[in-house]
Amino acid sequence: MSTLLFRAAPLRRLPLAVLLPLAFASTSQAQSLVDIYEMAKGHDATYQSARSQYEANLAKADQGKAALLPTVALSAGATRTQLESYAIKGSPAPTQDRPYTTRTAGINASQPLYRPANLATYRQSQKGLELAEAAMSQAEQDLIVRVSQAYFDVLSAQDSLAFVQAQKAAVAEQLASAKRNFEVGTATITDTREAQARFDLVTAQEIAADNDLRVKSVALELLVGKAGLKPKRIQSGAKLPAVDVQSIDNWVAQSEQHHPGLRQARANLDVAKLETEKATAGHKPTVDFTLGYNSQRNINGTAVTTASTQANVATAGITANLPLFAGFATQNRIREAAALEDKARSDLEGAQRQVAQVTRTAYLGLQAGQGQVKAYEAAEASSQVALEANKLGYQVGVRINIDVLNSQSQLFQTKRDLAKARYDVLVGQLKLRQAAGVLKAEDLQPINALLAP
Predict the structure, then answer these.
(1) For residue 177, what pLDDT is reported?
(2) pTM of the entire structure?
(3) 218 FRET partner, CA 20 to 30 A, in 180, 189, 200, 289?
(4) How far apart are CA 249 and CA 253, in angstroms?
(5) Residue 59, pLDDT score
(6) 352 and 397 in contact (C-beta within 8 Å)?
(7) Which residue ranges of the chain lie beneath pLDDT 70?
(8) CA–CA distance, 291 with 163 (Å, rounded to integer)
(9) According to CATH, what is the number of the domain 70-114+286-321?
(10) Could you tell me the residue ranges of all domains in the chain?
């Protein structure tokens, strides 16, 4: 793909009233694309929500380790008992009416030796880390594109307003010329009315363009959380960054490997497979190693003796458990997990097709955008020549006023379309990298280098 140029607009033809706001906008505390992106990272609610979810997922992933680690519990208790014992008639047993206290304390530990369900849970938690990282990457890439789109929407709206104002000034000049020619009898009233109608139309377009600029500015300010933003403009004569010319199939291959959505879908499939393993583990035995030390002190005896005693018991052992029947719960759980695994596999296939389509669309859109820029550049030059020819023809009487007005309208419309096409190419490059899953904040630097210092 050929390198495209930003051609400087013929600002010498613009009125001073149009040039002054542009000059101040580019020098008074203007912000670059990277500046606005950094501000948006600290304010955008969607990005902050994704970051909080990422931190929650990290903590949740660590919870999976607990199923493989030992559990230790410390227990203590005290019981006060009032014993009343009476001899039955004819029995030699003594009568008792006394209180006694039992105090217990102990520490017990258990270490899983063989628990396949616990191992599957731990492996699921590690897949949770992949899910968290992929989700965070997707949120960051989405923020980059949203900020860039809003940034260039403002610049495009500023250009549209400037071109409409320049067109209004040109139409006003043509209207004044038509009036002078009518007064001296070299033109008809039709020329004046046509110029007046076009002036009124451009005035309405100016109002619409000014409102569009306000709306786009508000959208950018809401994204960043700061009012009075002034995005830096593109430098005159700046070249568009070179686009990676690899084939569309290479871009699709990158997306299959790196796209955050596909990484999440693959992780979800792995989690579903492990869930099936957990369900199957319901038929398998479990083995635990247990260790304990417990002490019981009987003050004033027990129910069978009046002597105060203390017993200390240390235990160590292995406990095995083999489930035999659980009311068909395990079998149904396996069926459920297998169905959910099939669902996750289908979701992955669907995501792969969607990402491939989005990547191809972004690639073709960028190619079309670059072609449009070249075509608009040629159209701008042709429209400028056509306008000058119509002005000359109007002066010598071979063209009428409406021809000049139409040429002016065509020229400024082409300028607006060209400016927008250039911005669309810049954003399109970011969208293509986003579709491939390789977009990073560093990719803003080549675009940022195009901005006026």
Answers:
(1) 81
(2) 0.80
(3) 200
(4) 6
(5) 86
(6) no
(7) 1-28, 90, 93, 187, 245
(8) 83
(9) 2.20.200
(10) 11-69+116-283+328-448, 70-114+286-321
